Amino acid sequence: MANDDEIFTGALKKVFLAGVGAVAATADKSEEIFNDLVEKGESTVSQGKSLNKELKHTVKDRVKADRDQAKKSDNPIRDLNAILAGMTAEQLDALKDRIDDVKSNIKGDKKDDGKKESDSEDKNS
């Protein structure tokens, strides 16, 4: 019986040691995985910062180029056509209404000028 007890005790001891080994291995592996994740996180943050700087630089360059182009525009009709091409139907209708208002004000001013001229001619006669 002592032999059976020794076998059982030996087997129990091995199971216990395997459990302790599993915990130790898990701790080691967990630490390794954790360190890898931290490293990848740092790398990702670094790449994000780099991309953000690049994007800011690109946007600044584009805005500056657009401003320079707008200042150097030698063809206002082409520029106006580009603006009109980007407008919605509602925006175009509003623009048409505004143009009509300006036209009627110009015509009204000419009529007033004509009346003033004829009034002054009558007074001079």
Summarize the structure.
The chain is mainly alpha-helical and 125 residues long.
Describe the structure.
The chain has 125 residues and is mainly alpha-helical. The chain has two domains: 1-72; 88-125. The protein contains three helices and no strands. The protein is rod-shaped and about 130 Å long. This is Phasin family protein. Residues 103-125 are annotated as: Disordered. It holds the Pfam family Phasin.
Number of strands: 0
Poorly predicted ranges: none
Largest sheet: none
Q: What helical percentage do the residues reach?
A: over 70%
Order of helices and strands: HHH
Rounded radius of gyration (Å):
43 Å
User: Domains counted in the coordinates: how many?
Assistant: 2
Distance between the termini: 150 Å
Compute the number of helices: 3
Helix/strand class: mainly alpha
**What best-fitting shape do the alpha-carbon axes yield?**
rod-shaped
Q: How large is the share of residues in beta strands?
A: under 5%
Please tell me the overall pLDDT: 83
Explain the layout of strands and helices.
Blueprint: H1 2-71, H2 76-85, H3 89-124
